[in-house]
Amino acid sequence: MRRDVRVLRRELPFFLLRTVMQPLLFIVVFGYMLPRMGFVRGEYTTALLPGVIAVSLTLSAVQSVALPMVQDFGHTKEIEDRLLAPIPIPLVAVEKMVMGVLQGIIAALVVLPAGRLIMGPIAGLTLGHAGTALAVTILGAATFSAIGLWLGSAIGATQIGLMFSIIVAPMIFFGCAYYPWRGLDPIPIAKYAVLVNPLVYVAEGMRAVLTPEMPHMPLAAVVGALVLLLAGFSALAIRSFLRRAIG
Amino acid sequence: MSAAIHISGLRKEYPTPGGGTVIALAGLDLDIASGELFGLLGPNGAGKSTTIGILTTRIRPTAGSAVVAGADVRRSSVAVRQRIGVVPQRANPDLSLTALENLVFHAGYFGIPRVAATARAHTLMGTLGIADKMRARVGELSGGQQQRLMIARALIHEPRVIFLDEPTVGLDPQARLGLWEILRSLHADGRTIVMTTHYMEEADQLCDRLAIIDHGALLALDTPVALKARVPGGGTLDELFISLTGRELD
Ligand SMILES: Nc1ncnc2c1ncn2[C@@H]1O[C@H](COP(=O)(O)OP(=O)(O)O)[C@@H](O)[C@H]1O
Ligand SMILES: [Mg+2]
Fold first, then answer.
1. Domain limits of chain B?
2. ipTM for the complex?
């Protein structure tokens, strides 16, 4: 655990660059340029910011767990020294997930003020529910860390790049990140189809706590779905981690 | 002397991609006494690493049992890991850390406080001749230096039983002799040492007792002297190996 914190601290700039870049570009283009060019209405930023935060925190959680894990198991075997530590092996997996959550929180904490700064004032943005916001962040990051652990331990090094492009890109675009879920009301098929996408719940959860004035999915539904997804993916992830860790 | 390691009926099958199984260990029985410097000798694919893997709780046996330092590898794997040190076949240092951090963090997993661990790391790195690499990122170390770092890591928590999987592969002759010295002094210290090798000379010179294995089965178990005496007219371990398996090692 402390080992991972030390490594994270050393590599923080690269970490931020990797995970926060895409969301920040989105903020600049869609949150700053387009509204000022008059292509989208001002309140689009209200829908965008929570979604962008959701994308950054989930992406950083999933990547920070999955990518090193693939290397660890595939090539460097660095994780071996932790597997020789006198603690139960599932704890090693849980530690990886905790680190993923931590990095998700960091990403959210960077993107929120940065977004606010670039976009200018955002109608309906409130920090009144900071506690709940943190809870949703942790829940979302934990779910995606579990997904990262599962991908990282179930997939070989050669396929992980492919995996990211065929899973992560659609997940982001169909994740209600760059538009609110209720915006899909006119397209009922899409509205219900996207519910399989875990990102939807994180994005809508962020909307529920950061911009509650906007129409959004009920917070209870968000939390319920995330708890279920977290439980499911954790079980899956720890199983595949154990299978990979012990020959 | 009490048994440090008790292996009985140990069997390991690996699934193959084709749906079949590879039998890596075909029911191994072995007892290693406390304080022994024990060698597992056999050609590539004999099952040496698999045996070490099971004894160090990294591989789950298909059948049979193994007790290491009083703890069962299946039921009490955490206790086993607490009492052993492991030098893997391939060096696997933590590349994101410095050499010193590698040791101190590893000691941390065993609950050794930072200050004590740092002191011990200094001593070990001095003994192993890598003291000048303390603050270097591990990637800057040569293969032999990384290997010695792995030995330091295996010793940092002062384990009772030490496992080394082909520790001298890839070392130059001088480094190999240096490692032999280290192993001898650990042995003199009373630690139990289990090492694998496919070098006859190394097994002959270094080990108290040897188990010769091939195809996952035990072919012979004795002191090097007694093993060599089995060859009619007194010969070498190489000759014994040929007479046991009908082929040469390597
Ligand atoms: N993870 C694995 N999956 C499938 N087969 C394996 C695996 N590890 C080892 N084997 C097979 O088991 C046998 C014994 O291997 P190993 O214990 O590594 O031998 P040694 O260390 O003596 O060279 C070999 O036939 C090897 O191909
Ligand atoms: Mg081997």
1. 3-89+162-245
2. 0.83
Instruction: Enumerate residue ranges in chain A where pLDDT < 50.
Output: none
State the pLDDT at residue A232: 95
Structural contact between residues B191 and B22, judged by C-beta atoms closer than 8 angstroms = no
| Domain, as residue range, for A105 | 2-246
Structural class in CATH, domain B3-89+162-245:
alpha beta
Which of A84, A91, A241, A246 is most worth mutating to test chain B (most B CB atoms within 10 A of its CB)?
Answer: A84
Which residues of chain A have a CB within 8 Å of the CB of B88? Answer: 77, 80
Cβ of A76 and B97 within 8 Å?
Answer: no
CB contact set of A227 (below 8 Å; sequence gap of 6+)? A139
Substitution target in B22, B68, B76, B78 with the highest count of A β-carbons within 10 Å is B78
CA gap A73, A67 in Å, rounded: 10
pLDDT in tens, A96-155: 898 889 889 988 888 888 888 777 777 777 777 778 888 999 999 999 999 999 988 887
* Ligand 1, pocket-test mutation among B22, B90, B169, most atoms within 8 A of CB: B22
Q: How many domains does chain A have?
A: 1
8 A C-beta contact, residue A210 and residue A49: yes
